[in-house]
């Protein structure tokens, strides 16, 4: 009897840990409760040991148990199940699973209060590649036989590799091999990155065709790697950006080697957190791309 009681208490404590832990993302402790209905990116792995969860349901998707950094675990709803045997990057929307009272019709006790747990409705999964595969992925970007769609997928995998990909990307900053081309639609006000005068009519769009080099894509991927993750600036609602920087980034780094040299030994989570004020300044300035050293 005592053994069963101990087991029941252990399960209850595990459920509490899941409820509290499921609200935190990885090492930086981002609360998923504040991001319900919003898009997030989470580093994850298939769960090694399954904890007790409120699973919920998302039509057309399979609930999967995934472990997050820091010893946490949540449920991920994925179409077709998890495609990665190891580390992965999940992109999706935070959803709630709710459990009702266990004794309907009777006065509520603390054990009968509605239980809420947070999960992720996954829109895309990127498998993190082993370090040994990174050079081949980068070479595929300069391969004319690889389709633009496949190149975008390879870029996503390189970005998902995080700091492990940085030395390789730094080595190719001056790589002039052509990756592809793009047509950028812009307005004069956007080109100057300044707001138009009050009452000024909308100018005619300008179409600019551009050849993209591997070095330029490496700069963009470095920006993606260090961009703040799951951060919502309190200033975002105060103004619509005039024009995002290269590749949609809010900041620009002219010297990427110096950037990482000044942050040697700093974790990627800390680097991203350090750039959150830069994102704030971007929105406070009305969408002016910020220079970062």
Overview features:
single chain; 293 residues; alpha+beta; 2 domains; five-stranded mixed beta barrel; two-stranded antiparallel ribbon; 9 helices; 11 strands; 30% helix; disordered N terminus
Q: Strand-and-helix sequence, N→C?
A: HEEEEEEEHHHEHEHEHHHE
What percent of the residues sit in helical stretches (DSSP H or I)?
A: 25-40%
Radius of gyration from the alpha-carbon trace, in angstroms:
23 Å
How many structural domains are formed by the residues?
2
Structural class: alpha+beta
What would the principal axes of the Cα set say about the shape? globular
Instruction: Give the N-to-C terminal Cα separation.
Output: 64 Å
The number of distinct helices, counting runs of at least 4 residues, comes to: 9
Number of strands: 11
The main sheet orders its strands as 3-4-5-7-6
Low-confidence stretches: 1-29
Describe the sheet with the most strands.
5 strands, mixed, barrel
Give the helices and strands, then pairings.
Layout: H1 2-21, E1 24-25, E2 30-31, E3 39-46, E4 62-68, E5 72-78, E6 88-99, E7 115-127, H2 134-141, H3 148-160, H4 166-171, E8 178-186, H5 188-192, E9 206-213, H6 214-226, E10 251-252, H7 256-261, H8 268-274, H9 276-284, E11 290-291
Parallel strand pairs: 5-7, 10-11
Antiparallel strand pairs: 1-2, 3-4, 3-6, 4-5, 6-7, 8-9
Helix pairs in contact: 2-3, 3-6
């Amino acid at each position: 009897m005592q053994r069963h009681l101990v087991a029941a208490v252990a399960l209850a404590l595990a459920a509490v840990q899941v409820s509290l832990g499921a609200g935190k993302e990885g090492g930086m402790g981002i609360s998923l409760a504040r991001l319900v209905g919003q898009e997030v990116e989470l580093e994850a792995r298939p769960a090694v040991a399954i904890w007790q969860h409120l699973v919920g349901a998302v039509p057309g998707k399979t609930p999967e148990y995934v472990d997050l950094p820091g010893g946490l675990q949540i449920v991920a709803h994925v179409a077709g199940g998890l495609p990665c045997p190891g580390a992965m990057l999940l992109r999706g929307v935070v959803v709630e699973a709710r459990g009702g009272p266990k004794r309907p019709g009777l006065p509520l006790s603390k054990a009968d209060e509605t239980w809420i747990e947070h999960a992720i409705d996954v829109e895309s999964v990127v498998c993190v590649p082993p370090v040994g595969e990174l050079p081949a992925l980068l070479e595929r970007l300069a391969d004319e036989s690889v389709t633009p769609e496949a190149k975008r997928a390879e870029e996503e995998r390189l970005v998902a590799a995080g700091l492990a990909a940085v030395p390789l990307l730094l080595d190719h900053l001056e790589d002039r091999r052509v990756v592809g081309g793009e047509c950028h639609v812009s307005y004069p006000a956007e080109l100057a990155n300044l707001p138009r005068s009050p009452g000024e009519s909308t100018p005619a769009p300008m179409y600019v065709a551009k050849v993209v080099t591997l070095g330029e894509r490496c700069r963009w991927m470095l920006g993606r790697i260090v961009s703040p993750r799951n951060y919502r600036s309190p200033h975002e609602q105060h103004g619509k950006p005039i024009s995002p920087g290269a590749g949609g980034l809010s900041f620009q780094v002219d010297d990427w080697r110096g950037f990482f040299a000044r942050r040697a030994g700093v974790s990627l989570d800390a680097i991203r957190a350090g750039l959150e004020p830069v994102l704030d300044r971007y929105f406070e300035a009305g969408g002016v791309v910020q220079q970062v050293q």
